Amino acid sequence: MIHLAICLMCLSYRAQNATQLIARWDSLQDGKSTAKPSLHGLIKDFENKREWNGLCDTYRRLGILYRNEGRTDSAIIAYIKSIKLADSIGYTSSSASSNNQLGSLYYELNDPKRALTYFSQAFYLYGKAKSNRGASDAALNMAEIYLELGNRTESMKLNLESMRYRRARGDTSEMGYNYDLLSRQALNDNAFNKALAYSQRANQLFRASNDAAGLMPGLIQQALCLENLNKNDSALRFYQKSYSLAKQYQYKKYIAQALKGMAGVFEKIGLKDSAYFYLSSHTIYQDSLHLENIEDATIKEAARYETEKIETNLKNEKLLSAKMTQQLYILAGLILVLIITIVLMVRNFRQRKKIQEKQSELNNANAMIEGQDAERERIARELHDRVGSMLSTVKLQVTSMDEQMSSLILQHGESYKKVIHLLDDTYDEVRRISHDLDSGLLSRFGFKTAMMQLVQLLESTNKLKVMYIDNGVDPSVYKAFETDLYRITQELLSNAIKYASAKEISLQLSINNGNLLFSYEDDGVGFDKTTLEEKKGIGYKNIDTRVKKMKGTWHLDTSVGHGTNLIIEIPLNAKI
């Protein structure tokens, strides 16, 4: 379970021209057919303008593209070009990223020793660039490989080094992977109690950070520790927990592992029928995983495999003729086509079912949001047209009695002024509430104007400093999302005013890799996000519903005493 941190989006250039050219590539990258020609064009532009930083990062992106296409030789050449150029100009962070990419590629190619070489170089360069995040991940990657190679001493040393970097960074959210590795190291040394303690700590951290990908194998590891301690009932319970979680996320690898573990426990305690049932289920999932692996393989790789198998048979038996070889090729091709067809049919059926379920959930969420918006507009009209009109009439009636009440005003002038001032404040408050509820300003003047007015309204209190930056994004690009983004902004600002005690708030809109990014950040008191689901308020639930409606994703980063940061990412090709 190697932890490969590959930062693909965090590129920084010292030259403005490089930034503009990379932005041009991002705007063109709407499919594989245009991405590669655009990158080659960028390489020529960077070479002509001698923008070496941009050239380093572009070679790395080209390597990523080749890797995704399965062209590993071309990917390796592109990564090495990026590394050599970055080393020659002292662009340390870029060289570290490319070395890390190359290490992960060789690990996928089952060449752990060469992967270690590049991970080691990445670790050195991350340390030189003072990137605690990169150094901790590279150290953990090496520790994983050394454990696989049987070098437990070096594995332990690097794992502890990774933990040191994480603590220095002040972020222990991903330390669950380190404790999980400590548990496996202890299990290899037959230190079962120590392995169990490490595994329990790892799973605590996985739960705290809602990391299901780490928790699924972590629960299996905890079950293995309990099984070695002859605590079979507890081991069975943790295998079942991992199985349930893996079923929820449809992660067949861990479903199969959990089923095999349960079968083993039932075998130990003498329940043969249950052991046979779970072992049979394990076999079914293993076969399913095998079919998916065949689906993921390219026809060229499958043909190469069949060729090697035929050549082995020819060497061992020396009885096959050229005609038989041709027949085997044809048979292998037919079998491959049949397998791919079956797998695709099963996969398409499952995808259609998932899409139907998601669409049903989305329709329900959209109906709820539309009802809320309609009710907001109705209340806003009532406040503005009826209550506002009534307040204006009251004020007119009171002020029209000035002459008749002149003597009374002389005696109670301050009280009279307070009444008039209170009426004015009430009318202004009704207008403000009406503005908050109504999206009429949004529909008439657009998102940017509505946001600027909202900012001015908050800053007029002299209690908050609010900044909104749209980075020149064309409003037509996000027209379909502006109502939901505006409502989300209102929800976030309301939370900041009520609970966060914030003094400064930053709102920003931008485009990156064909996605619309909306970010919110405040310097308030923050909160423990692990308790978010336990709270009775519906604010963040509404935000989640609106983000799903826009077919986007969101990430919340906050802790007690450290403010709040929220990023929403929406694909611009999403249709809502």
Structure description:
By secondary structure, the chain is α+β, with helices and mostly antiparallel strands. The protein has helices spanning 16-28, 32-49, 52-68, 72-89, 92-108, 112-128, 132-148, 152-169, 176-188, 192-208, 212-228, 232-249, 252-268, 272-296, 299-317, 322-399, 406-411, 413-437, 440-445, 447-459, 482-500, 539-549, and strands at residues 465-469, 504-512, 515-522, 553-558, 564-571. A five-stranded mixed β-sheet has the order 1-2-3-5-4. Strand 4 and strand 5 (564-571) form a beta hairpin. Helix 3 (52-68) runs parallel beside helix 5, helix 7 packs antiparallel against helix 8 and helix 9 (176-188) packs parallel to helix 11 (212-228). The model is unreliable at 4-34 and 302-308 (pLDDT under 50).
